[in-house]
Every structure is written in C-alpha cells, then in structure tokens.
Amino acid sequence: MMVRGIIAGLLAAGLLLTPIAGAAAPSAQDKAAAKTSWAKGKQLEKLGKTDEAVAALRAAVERDPKAQYQLDFARALAKTDALREAVKVAEAVTTTKEPNAQRAKAAAAQLKKDLEAKIPSLKVRVRGADVKAATVQVDGQAFEVDKELPLDPGEHKVTGKVGDQPEVTETIDLAVSEHKVVSLDLAPKVAAKAADKDEEKEGGGGNMAPAAVLYGIGGAGLAAGAVLGVLAFNKTGEVEELCGGSVCPPEYADDVALAQDYGTASTVAFALGGLCAAAGIILTVTVGIDHGDDGDDEKTDAASLVVRPYVGPGTAGVVGVF
Fold it and tell me: Per-residue pLDDT tens for 276-295?
C-alpha cells in the first residue's frame, strides 16, 4: 500500500509540473514569430542596417531564446559597440541546456572571450573634496569613485558634485580596450566663482564718466587757448606795426582792445583746460580705484559726483562735489 501511495504521489506531481513546464516553453506561434524576426534580423544585418537588425533579433530572442538566435543577437550587439550586453547574451548561450547546441555554445564562449578583452573601463577620481561627500555619475547613472568599472566604447558624460556646489562636467570618449582615468576637480569651480566676485569688486572701481567729461573739457580748453594765443600774437604784431611805437592813435583803439581780449581769452582757456585736465587725473586716481561695498553704493557714488567749470572776470576753475 505504501509503495502504491508513493507512486501515485509521484504521478500526481508529474501531472502538476507538466502544465508549468509547458507554460514556460515558447508556443508554436511564438516559435514561428521568433523565426520570422530572426530571419529579418539576419537580412538587415547583411544590408548594413545594424541597429534595425539588433531590434529584430532582440524580438526573436524574447519570443524564443534559442541558442542560435541568442548567438546571432550577441554578434549584432557587438557591432553596435554594446559590448557588455553582448557578453551577457553570449554567456547565457554557454549555459543553455538546449539539446544539440554544442556548436552554438562553443562559438558563444569564444565570442565572450573576445569581447571581454575589448571592453574599455573607466576610473573616476575626485580632487579638492571629500570622496565620501562627492556624488559622481556617468551617463546619468551613479558611479563608484576610485574603482575601475567597465563601460561600452564611445562618448560618456561624467559629472561630479559636492552638496550645493556647482556641478563639474567632463565628456570623455572611450576607445575599444582603453582603460581611462578621469580626475574631477570639484574645488576650483567654487574658488573661481569667488575669485570672479572679488575681481568684479576690485576691477569695478567708481564711475569714470566725470573724469572723461573733465578730460574732454580740458582738451577743448587747451585747444582753444592755443588758437586764441595765436590770434593774440598775430593781432599784437599787427597793432605794433600800425602804431609804430608804444602809443597808438585813437583810431587803433579797437584793434588794441581786440588784441588784449585775445590774450585774456587765451590765458583763461589755458587755465580752464589745465584745471579740468588736473581734475580728471584726480578723479581717475581716486574714484577710478574705489572698490565700493556693492553695486548700490557705486550707483549712489556715481550719482553724487558733480563737476562744473566756471569762468569769471580774470578767473577760471572747476567746482564740484566728489
């Protein structure tokens, strides 16, 4: 009785397991669709349409993970530089229990070996910050610092950040079989930002517009003084020639007065030009190197600068509030 009970139990278990095994295996419809996708993928690969071939072969493997389908899928992946995924697919073929798959398994083992030698690697180091506080990502995925990790060939974006500090980004290009080390300096960005602010404060200075105005007035005054001086000199020579001595007849009184006016105007113009030029130099030295506490103070200081030249009877100068 006991023997019969054991046999009955084993038969029942077999009957229960049969539907499960049947559910795991691809159906006839899946096999047919997989074969169609596989044939399509092989044809696209021959035409050089590798990306489309990979998509078709992936569809075939998902429907029916046949050893040959997976092997061809791994080969196509390798052509697109998706080496890491190709190695995983090839490794799956080497462990398959599919009957009559010895040739596919041997080819997959060799493919896996060849691809592993081609996979590049990257090591990211961090300078200027605590490694534990740094967050490093490669292509948007977390990446362990100071550890050489495999990546596919091609372009990769490496980013590093510490707390709220600015993110440091570096784009690299990995060649087949290359082993690259990237060092991210997380400190200089912050230091450079602070240095830029200091440079703005140091280099900003005060408002140089009043100095420029004074230089303009000074230049004009000196030029006018020179012209009036020439006119005064010529007119004086003309009067001396007309008068023929130190005393002039009354009819030449206007000429004498004009010569004197030219001389006086030349003196005033020279004095005004010199004073304005001197004031401009003073403003350049003082206001020009004034650092100021902030932008608002600079605007206030600039607004409070008032410069005004004046000319009076026998006098000339510049008045202002600095």
Answer: 777 778 777 776 555 445 54
Q: Is 169 helix (H, G, I), strand (E, B) or coil?
A: strand
CATH code for the part of the protein at 121-187: 2.60.40.1120
The answer to whether the pTM exceeds 0.70 is no
Question: Cα dist. 42→10, 46, 76, 85, 127 in Å?
Answer: 45, 6, 9, 19, 48
CATH for 26-117 is 1.25.40.10
Is residue 127 within 8 Å of residue 187, measured between CB atoms? yes
Q: Which pLDDT score is estimated for 271? A: 81
Question: Which tens digits make up the pLDDT trace of 102-156?
Answer: 999 999 999 999 999 999 999 999 888 888 888 999 999 999 999 999 999 999 9
Q: How wide is the angle at C-alpha 257 spanned by C-alphas 312 and 255, nearest 5°?
A: 145
Helical segments of the chain, H only: 2-24, 28-46, 50-63, 67-79, 83-94, 102-118, 188-204, 209-243, 253-286, 295-304
- Annotate 294-310 with DSSP letters as a single string: SHHHHHHHHHH-EEEEE
Give the residue carrying structure tokens 């200081």: 301
